[in-house]
Amino acid sequence: MSLVNLKQYVENSVKDERNSHGYRADSSFRMLEHVELMIDRYLSEEQTEKGAVLLNVFGLLQALFVAIDALYDLAIGLTQYKYHVNVNSNPILHELKYIRNDIVGHPTHRTYPEGGMGFSILDTDHLSKDKLVYQTYIYEKNNMEIKSKEVLFKELIDAYRQEKDIILNDIYEYLTHEETKTNIPEKVFVLYETLNIEQLNEVKKDFMSEYGLDEQSNHRFLWRVDFLEKLIHWDEEDKELKDIVTYMSKLQASKLYEIALDMEKRTGQDLYTPIPRLLSSFYKFMRKNEKIGLPLLKNIHDYTHPLHKSDLSALLSLNPPKDAAKLLRFLKHSNDDSRVYLIGSILRNYRPKS
Fold first, then answer.
1. Which of 325, 320, 299, 321 shows the shortest CA–CA distance to 310?
2. What are phi and psi of 31, to 5 degrees?
């Protein structure tokens, strides 16, 4: 899907002082065009001189980083929602922000919990426009850890362009979709009550058919459908942990209900799911430890984040009460990125004192 297909919608979007969506779409669209020019130049320009290659590499990483933000803002500007964009589901692009921070953002000084610090060093002896290698040195509690990373630029560009095309297509399908009222929200409401896998499969099929989505789509509705499917099949013998899984299931179903209604510009019932005891204990623990604990929640849901394990260990070192500690250990013993995301997300739902 080309940007050209959306140009008329951007040009026709309302631009006034009362609503920022039109200008937001225009700004994002132009930036995506600029990034394509930069990528084309990067790929076509022969360059071997070290300084020029470094300049090219830094520019490309920053351009891709900005382009991802522009995709989100284009979706919001044209549809009012970011449902069509979910770059984090693409593992290559998900890692881009870490690479960009290591190389372009904060290569000489990164701070970590409990006084840790780190920095990155480029291996310029093997630097080219095809790839780069760098090492990140992390000092924490008198220990040093060295992590090496290889970045293949063609792979990064291909992943971005593939994801961009999918997103633009989903936005286009939404904009050309006639406004209708379906029974999808009502089916999702039943799903919230029953957490039935057959009902979930029917909802997924109906939604994809209605909005012209294919299996490649990373629409947030389908993303949450996948989470809910995993949750329905997730079995825990411990009753308190089973309650947590049920709570997470209800939460995902309620998000599906909200998206289904928004897609049809409708309102529905408020779905409230009581907070289970372990989670309530964790929130009370956080209330007493906000100053230290809040920064540690930022990456707690991201299994691939460099700080995930250290942040989790730091939370446990604050001596949480038995129930809160049980929930944190539940997260610690999970080695699946989806499970970590689901458990970590309900921890991050804690709302600090205003």
1. 299
2. -65, -40
- More confident: 112 or 314: 314
- Whether 57 and 127 have beta carbons less than 8 Å apart is answered as yes
On whether the CB atoms of residues 185 and 266 are closer than 8 A, the answer is yes
Q: For the segment 245-303, what is each residue's pLDDT rounded down to a tens digit?
A: 999 999 999 999 999 999 998 999 999 999 999 999 999 999 999 999 998 999 899 99
Closest CA to 106 of 97, 95, 119: 119
What integer is the mean pLDDT of 59-64? 92
Q: Output phi, psi for 140, to 5 deg.
A: -150, 120
* Dihedrals phi, psi of 297, to nearest 5 degrees: -85, -15
Q: Which helix (H) or strand (E) holds 22?
A: helix 21-44
Neighbours of 93 (CB within 10 A): 21
Q: How confident is the model at residue 106 (pLDDT cuts 50, 70, 90)?
A: low
Classified as helix, coil or strand, 28 is helix
In b/e form, how buried is each residue of 27-47, taking b as 16+ CB within 10 angstroms?
A: bbbebbeebbebbeebeeeee
